[in-house]
Amino acid sequence: MTALLLRDLRLAFRAGGGFGLGLAFFLIVTVLVPFAVGPQSALLSTIAPGVLWLGALLACLLSLDRLLALDWEDGSLDLLATAPLPLESVVTIKALAHWITTGLPLVLAAPFLGVLLNLAPPGFLWLVVSLLVGTPALSVVGTFGAALTVGLKRGGLLLSLLVLPLYVPTLIFGAEVARRGAVGMETATPLLFLGGITAACIALLPFASAAVLRVNLR
Amino acid sequence: MSIAAKANALWAYANPKKFLATTERVLPFFWASAAISLVVGLVWGFFFTPDDYKQGSTVKIIYLHVPAALMAINAWLMMLVTSLVWLVRRHHVSALAARAAAPVGIVMTLIALATGAIWGQPMWGTWWAWDPRLTSFLILFLFYLGYVALWEAIENPDTAADLTSVLCLVGSVFALLSRYAVNFWNQGLHQGASLSLDKEENVADVFFFPLLVCIAGFVLLFIALVFYRTGTEIRARRIKALLARERVGS
Amino acid sequence: MTLTVTDLAIARGGVPVLEGLSFTLAPGRALILRGPNGIGKTTLLRTVAGLQPPLAGRVEGAEETIAYAGHADGIKPPLTVTENLKFWAQVFGTGDIAPALKAFALTDLADRQAGNLSAGQKRRLGLARMLVTGRPIWALDEPTVSLDRDSVAMFAAAVRAHLGQGGAALIATHIDLGLEGEVLDVGPYKARPRPVEDFDGGFL
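Predict the joint structure of the above. Result:
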């Protein structure tokens, strides 16, 4: 299992594109927001938690179609499916690798982008905490979407259509934590919901992902 | 007949031939009764009920809004059940019925959203508000879109049935989650449920009885549409299978 | 570790292609699959490898014993030859990759990025993977594609050594590899088209 994780990380670092692309996208989206809504710092400060959450979510989405498609194209998935490793582990590790290469950098970059959007000082901690708790769910749900669409040509757009509605609960609770944190309200309730959703996704969704992957491989 | 035997008799309709023969026999009845109850319910509701003391005549859109909203959810529930049946028992008719119900569900969701907007304009002074119920229906609409798009995108019908069934299952859980998330996110303007088993909260009887007739009409219409569309899907599937056989034969 | 296939029927794209197929593959034996293009050899190998369910019939003795190699080699271009091979060795829980590199004359290329290999060299790397799986039964789909004559001999020697150690091989190929083993022509098992009116239950 470690071997697969290390291979995926090594591929992400070596192949270049995949690793920095999500981060660059996140930066650009954040920079574009003030151009769209105007430079008033009060307005930016209000919408900053939501914009940063949405930006992180879209950046996550961007790299999903490569998550399984490359392994599908070069036949690795066939070989992994006949290997001693259960497919449930394979998809979990794939999601973990996706989180390490996409989700984690987004979490680390978010506070700096928060400065650009004039995020209120108490909001920084809660933004990072909510992203840290929420982005694993984005990766796991995204892996399910990638497994559904892996055999399809031009699956990318369909992938977005399938995954985005599934992101709704995570986005609502995640952005709520960041927003409440920024104005100094209590954050425990939405944070618990967010954590619960993430934990449930990690525990249950790999079974669905592996099941649809098996269907797609036959 | 014992319960087990009855259940077995029910599974017989999973045979495409039997299903087609039976639905062809009962369909005229469903079309006719749907038409009658819709006409009776709507005419009764629109012309023979008093205006609401608060909402005026706008309240009468309830006769479209509530049944459509009910059917939008029930159609998804039906898809959930038939998807499970397909995954467990591998009856093709079940998967095709789920596929047939989805566009009907989309239309019902759209009717509910549109009538809601038309009703909301005079009542709340806005066509759209991010009220929990409205938002939930919008999210349901997105789930329907994804489900139909996945069916359309996959060439092999059995693969498509498997994948859409799993999507329906996972989507149901997330739709429910979204419903609670949205409730948490914004407490809304929407009035309480128009119907519930607790009689105290229900709308007044004058509105209630024509509403029941309209709901019955929508249910019958839904059944008729799903039977009809499933029949079409079965025939389309046969054509596909025949073409595939021909390709292999040559 | 005998592989037993009983009365197998398989489908591709929802259409039955082969039916009534039975054979056994004992340790130390090779079975060469023959038949025209499109008859279903690849589908048969994928079914035996457990990648897709059979329509009917049974495959016994395949659980966790088969190493499958399809048309694609599953090679990652950014990784070196060693890294590619080591990855599969770790996945299958076996250790040393040196014998596999040697058997397919890849030792000199060990540190080369797999993306810079020629088609034949890539194929050799894909076949070397079979050696590091440590699995007794090899299921190979057209293994000699893009191999030159020396490489084919290399491959045949590797298969022979595998059989000598009590392994078995199921190979779809049109080349005579000079192996001890039976040839199975799957042509006669082609699925008969079913009558048009027969749509009870399914749509196959």
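The helical segments of chain B are 3-11, 16-47, 62-89, 92-124, 132-153, 157-185, 205-249.
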